[in-house]
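The following record pairs a protein chain with its ligand, pyridoxal-5'-phosphate.
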Amino acid sequence: MAARKMRRKAAAPPPAPKKKAPKRPVAPRRRRVRRTVESDRLYARAKAKMPGGVSSPVRSFKSVGATPFFVKKAKGSILVDADGNRYVDYVMSYGPHLFGHMPKAVASAIRKALPRGTSYGAPCRAEVELAERVTRLVPSMEKVRFVSSGTEAAMSAVRLARAITGRDLVLKFSGCYHGHADSFLVAAGSGLATLGIPGSPGVPAELAKATITATYNDLESVEALFRKYPGKIAVIAVEPVAANMGVVLPKPGFLEGLRKIADREGALLLFDEVITGFRLARGGAQELFGIKPDLTCLGKILGGGLPVGAYGGRADLMAHVAPDGPVYQAGTLSGNPLAMAAGIAMLDSLTPAAYAKLERTAAKLEKGMRKVAKELGVEERLTLNRVGSILTLFFNPGPIASFDDVKKSDGAAFNRWFHGLLKSGVFIAPAAFEAMFVSTAHTEKDLAKTLAAHREALKEAFAEG
Ligand SMILES: *Cc1c(COP(=O)(O)O)cnc(C)c1O
C-alpha cells in the first residue's frame, strides 16, 4: 500500500456527459486510521533543531491543533507522506503548481538545464528569455527584475516606490499579505491571523508606523487615509484578488477606484500578483479586471515550483533600479538558471485550454461543494468565494468582502472540517483563511473523492454546532 505507484491520466478530457441517470453521490470510502509513525518521528527530530519543526509557520498544523505530516513525494494532484498516506492536494505549495506537481514540461526543462550548472553570478540566456515572456504576458511590466521570493519582490517594490515618490508611507489593506518584510507585517492576513499575532515583534515601531492600513473593498477608508496624510503616501499595495485572508474578490469599481485615487494623489499603485499572476489569466488579475498598475509583484507560478519572484513596471519607474538608477537591490541567486528554466517552461504551458480546464474543474468542485452543503441543510452557515482556480469555504454567512467579514468565520467548525478532509485523504491548508488551489492535474476521480470527503467532514464540522 505504502508507495503504490501513482497513476494519473494526463489531462484526458472528461467523457461526454450522458443525459440521463443523474450521478448518485459516491459512497464515502471506509476510512482507515491514518498511520503517522514516520511523520511523528521526523517531526520530533525537526522540532529539536528547527523552530516549530518547520521552515514556514503554517506548515506546523499548529492552528488546527495537530502535528504535520512530512511529505515523501508528490506528483500531479497527489501528495504521499512519509507513512505512505496519499492525499488529493489542494495546497499545491500555496500556489506555484498550476499544472500539479512535476508537470512534464517543467521537470524536463529542469533536467535539461541541470548539466549546465546551478548558479553563475553572471547573466545567462534563460533570464533574458523569461524576462521577454513576462513583459509580453503582463504588458504593464515593461521591465522586470528577478528575485528569489515573493517577499523579496514586494519589499523591493516598496523601496522603489518610496524612492521614486520621495514619500515614506505604505498603504496596505487589512488581511492582505505581501510577504514577511518589516513594512508588511501589519494586519497581514492568514499566517499571522491564525496564530493570533497582530503584527510581529522585531519590527521597529517607527517602521510599523510607516505602514497604514485600509479596509479591503472600502474606497472611503482609502480616501480617509489620504486626507489624514496628504502628500505622504508613496504606494497603495493591494492583492487585486485577496487570497491570503481566504479568497475575497474585489467589488466592481474597487480596483478602478484605487487607480483613480493613486493618480490624483501622486502615489503609485502596486498590484501584488504573487498568487493571481498567471493563475487568473495569462496576464494575471490586471488582465482579468482591465486595470493597469504602476508596479507589479510576481512569484509562485513564475518559478514553476522553484524559488523565483519578480517585480517590474513602467520602464521609467524601473529606470530607478540599480545599476540604471540609485535604488539598490541585489541577489546572489537571482536569475538562477534552473529556476529561470522552470519559469520559461511554466509560462510556455499557459494555453487557453489550460485555463478552460482550470475553470471547468474548479467550477465543478464549487458546484459539488455547494450541493453537499445544501443537502446537509447547512448552506446558510457557509460562504464559498471563488475566482478561477482559487476558492475558499468560509464558516459564516456572507457576503465576505473584507477581513472583518472573514474574522467572523467559525474557526472550530473549520478545524473539524479540515480534520475530516484529512482523514479521508484530502489536504487543504491547515488554516481557515487560505485558498484551495485547483490545478489542471486534478481529475474527475479526485473531485469525487473530495466531495465524498467533504460530505463526511461537513457533518463533523457542524456536529457540535
Ligand atoms: C506568497 C505571497 C507572498 C510572499 O511570497 P514568498 O515567496 O512566500 O516570499 C507575497 N504576496 C502574496 C500575495 C503572496 O501570496
